[in-house]
Design a protein that fits this description.
two-stranded antiparallel sheet; alpha/beta; eight-stranded parallel beta sheet; 13 helices; about 300 residues; homotetramer; globular; Aldolase_TIM (chains A, B, C, D)
Chain lengths: ~300, ~300, ~300, ~300
Amino acid sequence: MALLGNIPVVPTPFLNGKIDQESIVRLIERTAPHLDGYVVCGSTGEAPALTTSERKDVIRAFAKESPKQLELVIGLGHTSLEDAIELGLDAAEAGIKSALVPSPYYFPNSLDMVIDYVGKLAEATGLDIVFYDNPVTTKTTFTADSLIRLSEAVSSIKAVKMTDHAFGKIRELKARTKLSVFGGDDIICFRAFEAGVDGNMIIAPIIFPEAFRECWNHYVNGDRERSFDIYSRTLLPFISMFGPGDEIPTTKALFKHLGLFSSAETRTPLLASDAQRTREVLLGYQQGLQKQQLK
Amino acid sequence: MALLGNIPVVPTPFLNGKIDQESIVRLIERTAPHLDGYVVCGSTGEAPALTTSERKDVIRAFAKESPKQLELVIGLGHTSLEDAIELGLDAAEAGIKSALVPSPYYFPNSLDMVIDYVGKLAEATGLDIVFYDNPVTTKTTFTADSLIRLSEAVSSIKAVKMTDHAFGKIRELKARTKLSVFGGDDIICFRAFEAGVDGNMIIAPIIFPEAFRECWNHYVNGDRERSFDIYSRTLLPFISMFGPGDEIPTTKALFKHLGLFSSAETRTPLLASDAQRTREVLLGYQQGLQKQQLK
Amino acid sequence: MALLGNIPVVPTPFLNGKIDQESIVRLIERTAPHLDGYVVCGSTGEAPALTTSERKDVIRAFAKESPKQLELVIGLGHTSLEDAIELGLDAAEAGIKSALVPSPYYFPNSLDMVIDYVGKLAEATGLDIVFYDNPVTTKTTFTADSLIRLSEAVSSIKAVKMTDHAFGKIRELKARTKLSVFGGDDIICFRAFEAGVDGNMIIAPIIFPEAFRECWNHYVNGDRERSFDIYSRTLLPFISMFGPGDEIPTTKALFKHLGLFSSAETRTPLLASDAQRTREVLLGYQQGLQKQQLK
Amino acid sequence: MALLGNIPVVPTPFLNGKIDQESIVRLIERTAPHLDGYVVCGSTGEAPALTTSERKDVIRAFAKESPKQLELVIGLGHTSLEDAIELGLDAAEAGIKSALVPSPYYFPNSLDMVIDYVGKLAEATGLDIVFYDNPVTTKTTFTADSLIRLSEAVSSIKAVKMTDHAFGKIRELKARTKLSVFGGDDIICFRAFEAGVDGNMIIAPIIFPEAFRECWNHYVNGDRERSFDIYSRTLLPFISMFGPGDEIPTTKALFKHLGLFSSAETRTPLLASDAQRTREVLLGYQQGLQKQQLK
């Protein structure tokens, strides 16, 4: 089955410094009916700040609690191949089929380095790979050409998630390959629709699950104006205020406010949202909510 | 008089490769009643792609056509001090009091280099300086500390325009100095309001002049919710679609569509908005317009 | 005891994918008599590509095999505080007193984020901290001011290792603080001497241990010309050819050639030196060796 | 005639803020017999800080004073196409055939933008183009693929000067195209030889003209060891000390010391070499000189 649709990246809830399983359950209950899947333990899940054991716990929790028809994509971002393989094998054992894999993010990468690393990870785990093209966190830049070379060298790569703003890359990948392409940045998500993405791996669909699904479905069905109406009415006010840069703490602050998460804790080095930021985010959220209801 | 309020950056209209004075007149007629001034020949005005003589023509046109109560801030971005001084003296002769000055943008800069360059420019022209902190185009990064050192070393610096997303810098400058601070990036402009800016040097106020003024006035008068209502209803749909990265060509495409500019031409290296991008921008604009009227 | 002198960063030898203890022993035997210590499991040690268990093995090996009068500085670069603490406590138990700690390297950092992360790591481990200012691998830039704020906030920071080329920062730190400062980039190491460093955490001292010691001692004793004579005669030919960017694979290729390491293996994502690069590095090494002997 | 060999980039001498023609004459007299040409008004010539009129003066001076058998390559780096064309036409009138052209350096560039800009400049001036791939000053990164696309789109591009350290690009360009490739960074120039460059557009050949020529000739004639002997003996001590980052001020300080230039003045924003830097550079120069004579 091809990966398609709204597969949001989810934050990892903490309580007193520990993974908070109950909040995971609440989040799934609230959002799953309107989604096509989850990306678990990605950047938004603060995976680099978790231990291997914690990452397994989060993945297992989602594997257990998510409805079976939803896709789970497990974030395998790492700098140690051996640890990434251990995580991938554990996820595979739990029934997960796909992994989101960025370039390793410590040493400056050449294309050959990324091919070597991702190829070995794919081979050892047997997972389908969504390659995560994230120049900001990985300091590694891809052109359409280099993404195509990578996906030809590593045949397990079935999809690409893009966070940069080079919409031309999305168009080239769709024209020249069979790769699925996912938008990866909330702030430009409608422009990603316009560029032809197959789905979205962003945060907005767990903030406004029904509205995001409706927005996406209208777009896919050719009703671009109604789609943009929902986008600009409900989603944009929030999206414009919850970043850029601190989307994780602010989303957690909102989820705490809504009672979905038991706390707004982040894991160092991320700092929790302060009162001012929380106030800004709530303004955006409430405005989106109001405008949605006034429809 | 302190620089304050909505002093948008304006694109330079071209017609068949030449400066288009008539479009300048139309733009001023349409927007001036709702503004506090204009930034002329900044980045948005494509100043680096103009000749010295063209830059003078644009400045003179604004000096002649703008209502006298409006502030004119002249962009003096350059890599050649002598050329920048020539432009500044010409502007001063035309009655202009303030200049927007970024770091010189070819060689990697140290703070001392910027102090030397900006100091000499200020002294030779006698203009008040709005220092333009633009890390993307100048490859030069400032902390609050280094901005303060710069403004202490160059006493003509009266204000700072910031395009980066380090809102903490705005707060520090306001707390520790008497500098005016202007928001410089449309996409985050409401968060700049929240951080305490004294005004806005962005594009949005010439797209929706009345709405932007109303939005800003509500904010300044303490009615944050009404301000955000206008922002998210009218301004955001457009702002979310006209960038990031190609705000100049898309703004020109809109102005051509609206009959304000006689053409959507840009000057190389900027490429004109293509049909797809124009279609995206018009969607954003029309949505903003509709939601404004439904108020 | 203050950290001082030549405390090189050492590559981690592998054999068939495993840590190669015997090569560690050979490296120590060959180099220890001429050194003040070792930095173990830093960038050069490919620490981000090792598992926690492997990192402990390497540290324990050095703790066991190094002469007691040498300082061991353990690299704690990580993105997960909990893992870093585990490593630090294990090192402390093995008698190690100092850790080299860079900014966490996945999410973009603010100064407050680095203070939070490094402060917690220092407190939990009780180790003295050498803060590693490495903009390339951590995407985090420090001015002298921000390094001073960091060291004031985290009193366990006793030293700074600098890899960037901002020699003015070295001078400011020496003038304004009691921090030790270590040069961190081979290619500019003599200029780091000139800027006043207290020692060197680079690779060259394990390539030419006697020559580097002699070079440093002459400099410290005020004989700059003799120091530079040794530097340019013996060290520079190698340094100019073993980088920039692939110093780790090329050093390993040299050590394999010299019989110090049993293999030139690297850990993915680093790729081993190819024949051409090895040939270049050997040219540099042999030239340095010859010119040393002709002295 | 193909561009080949040692065509150094030359600093522009100033005296009391004006172009110093006499120093240009002295520089040519001293160095021309050992060179294949000059790059005039490039980065090293501080061209971005000169007025159009000054750039013409420098070009005319070299056109007048250089021996006719030497190639002159005129730097046309600019952000204004019209100004660049004016300079290029003036150079063509003075008999110059080739221009060194970087990406325009203010706005972030796409490949299409660079093709548009450079193509128009080539067409309007009729000059052969050496494309200058300089990521640091232009914020624009090229892969081998994108350089090839550019050179296919702009057929006047006959050569590429590279300043980055991606030696694989040099090899790919030589294997896949007929372009000449020039090394562009002193510090890695021997590694550029090894990667197969056709020549060098760097500073070293005007510092040690005879030694550099001898070094290059040995390399081209297959005597790599003798070439590297000269390189490491004579050139490296200087090269290791005159940068990185402030090669222009330090070269001028050396030329002043040697009596070649009447002053060590730079043009703002570059700051002149201070006493400490001059002392460092002279140490490197004198060491290189001594080791050359002891040969």
